[in-house]
């Protein structure tokens, strides 16, 4: 189930205004002149960096001839978009792209993820997170590490809270065996994934791509596909590798990622078979401690 998110509200507001502009064939400069705003300000509204005042939005709705029955919805979106959101206090820690990802994630209905190296962030234990943050590839200070751990655990509340989103993860088998932080942390991590699968059978689904599967190399990096409850909002993606991460909105790119993901997922072992593989790996690793 989706929760309220200022990031999602700003995005939907921009989409609805843009669709109306296109429908009526009105150009942005003409709208700006009619309403009395600058093109730069309108650009900020369209990219979610600014939220129009209620007075200006009502003027825009008038110029765009919004149907009367839709106007209350649009004004509600504006009100939601004005909220600071629970991620605002982390704005100095994360860049704009990550802040946007977390906002989209918080307001989503479902997330599908592919991960080929590390355990997905939504499934990580506190010890796994802290070990990652204190690694050579993590953050630079203990204070930042604490904040990163706190932020990641906040993200995970979307799995365990009263209105959980649906989370599906495809992991390569190497993710299960990879133990850069030591065997005990990895065993505890695998047991944690099993516990989530058992406690949330309707909303948490984890599949393991076997080493010998032809689909093993079909995707690379970290891939998110984020879906929303509103039929007006398209699927968006997040792609991340060792160098960068970005939100992907381009319809063709998202469609291609979605196609590959679904093709690989269709060939995966069942949820039960994947659970058994996780259990077997955890027992084998535990026997070596």
From TrEMBL:
Entry-linked SMART domains: HTH_XRE (SM00530)
Domain HTH cro/C1-type: 16-71
UniProt-recorded name of the protein: Helix-turn-helix domain-containing protein
Entries under SUPFAM superfamilies matching the protein: lambda repressor-like DNA-binding domains
InterPro entries noted in UniProt: Cro/C1-type_HTH, DUF5753, Lambda_DNA-bd_dom_sf
GO molecular function annotation: DNA binding
